[in-house]
Backbone:
């Protein structure tokens, strides 16, 4: 494969931690290490420290909407940022969010004439329903997202279920499957490290530990988990449940846990930005609980598998793709009674849990190195197809709109450049005039 210069755009990136931010971080890391160079383009965060990354990060202006949607919203209409990106001579743009990131990506594509790839990671209809009130507004937002996605040259999805969800939103184009990977090496950490992450929590030796890692949002199936924990406690089962993460529903989830009188069994831990700490949590637990029908890929399920930890999943969910019930994972129906019944049956069978976890590690784990190797091979195909004119022209009304924006930004940058030249010219003229006046004053002073 030829070395490539890739632009990666996404609306979330550290210090924000979520599955897509993690995916973009790993795309950039592996591309920079093995396949050329990568630049991440993402909204500005006041406490971001991008010096820790082995690749360049370009931030564009943003506004704080964390109370509404949990993120800062990017403003992609920055002529200065677009000019800076134009000068990098990218071979391809890969956008991972159909909102501000794809708006910026479309504007940039019209300036530098390279292909644009989009990856569909998340069921945005659920996010939209959570953030926007009113059916008409929600439908309009979904139409805008689908139009943004349809304007890309090639669309990838991280799972078959993600593709089906994208179709359900009204997308009519083609897409290909390009799964994400895991940034953990397959294997477990030392027992001492696994037990160290639980210091300060009541996690007795020999008592089964259940784990959830991710955003603390109701739509992740958290009510199912808590209600199942209540049923287990009421039936006399001894266990511990640990939630690792944060989210806008966090206070409500913790209040509901308190209402169920589960404070002695269930613990909430702040998100860990150190991946070794997350890995240690996977190795500390006996079973991973992920009853989410929201997630399109369930990357955390693959992370758990990397550590030999089996998952409990909703049968038929995207996260359950490639899982065989009872072999490399466990299936339940989408309700607390089903989860409680399964856990009562298997939670003390350490031999079964260990065997199913080992099977998951062997059969569903994929490293980011392998995943991005496949993606970079496809980049070459996309670039060749784009240069040969194989992709259809972009002639939707919104394409013309973005072309006009791109032209406007180019004009702004030209004007800025002319203004800078004028400023430099005036400065140079002033300095020369000052020198002449100083010389004249010296001559006059000698004469006097």
Residues:
């Amino acid at each position: 494969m030829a070395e490539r210069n890739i632009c990666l755009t996404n609306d979330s990136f550290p210090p924000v931690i979520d599955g897509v931010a993690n995916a973009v971080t790993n795309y950039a890391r592996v591309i920079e290490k093995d396949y050329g160079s990568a630049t991440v383009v993402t909204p500005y965060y006041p406490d971001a420290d991008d010096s820790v990354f082995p690749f360049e990060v370009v931030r564009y202006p943003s506004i704080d909407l964390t109370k509404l949607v949990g993120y800062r919203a990017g403003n992609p209409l920055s002529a200065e940022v677009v000019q800076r990106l134009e000068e990098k001579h990218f071979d391809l743009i890969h956008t991972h969010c159909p909102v501000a990131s794809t708006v910026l990506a479309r504007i940039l594509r019209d300036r530098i004439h390279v292909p644009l790839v989009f990856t569909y990671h998340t069921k945005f209809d659920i996010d939209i329903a959570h953030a926007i009130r009113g059916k008409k507004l929600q439908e309009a937002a979904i139409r805008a997202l689908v139009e943004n996605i349809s304007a890309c040259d090639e669309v990838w999805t991280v799972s078959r279920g993600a593709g089906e969800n994208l179709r359900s939103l009204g997308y009519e184009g083609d897409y290909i499957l390009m799964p994400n990977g895991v940034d953990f090496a397959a294997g477990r950490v030392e027992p001492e490290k696994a037990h160290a992450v639980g210091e300060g929590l009541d996690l007795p030796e020999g008592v089964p530990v259940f784990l959830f890692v991710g955003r603390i949002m109701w739509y992740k199936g958290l009510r199912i988990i808590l209600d199942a924990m209540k049923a287990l406690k009421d039936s006399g089962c001894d266990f511990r449940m640990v939630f690792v993460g944060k989210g806008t529903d966090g206070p409500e989830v913790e209040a509901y846990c308190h209402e169920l009188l589960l404070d002695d069994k269930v613990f909430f831990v702040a998100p860990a930005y150190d991946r070794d700490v997350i890995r240690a949590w996977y190795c500390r637990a006996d079973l991973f609980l992920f009853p989410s029908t929201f997630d399109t890929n369930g990357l955390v399920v693959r992370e758990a598998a990397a550590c030999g930890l089996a998952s409990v999943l909703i049968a038929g969910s995207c996260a359950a793709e490639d899982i065989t019930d009872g072999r490399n994972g466990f299936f339940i129906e989408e309700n607390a009674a089903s989860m409680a019944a399964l856990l009562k049956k298997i939670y003390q069978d350490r031999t079964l849990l260990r065997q199913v976890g080992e099977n998951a590690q062997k059969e569903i784990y994929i490293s980011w190195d392998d995943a991005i190797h496949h993606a970079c091979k496809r980049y070459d195909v996309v670039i060749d197809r784009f240069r040969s004119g194989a992709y259809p022209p972009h002639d939707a009304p919104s394409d013309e709109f973005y072309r006009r924006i791109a032209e406007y930004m180019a004009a702004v940058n030209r004007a800025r450049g002319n203004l800078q030249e004028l400023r430099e010219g005036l400065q140079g003229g002033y300095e020369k005039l000052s020198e002449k006046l100083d010389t004249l004053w010296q001559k006059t002073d000698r004469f006097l």
User: Anything to note?
Assistant: The chain is about 50% helix and 15% strand. The first strand starts at residue 4 and ends at 9.
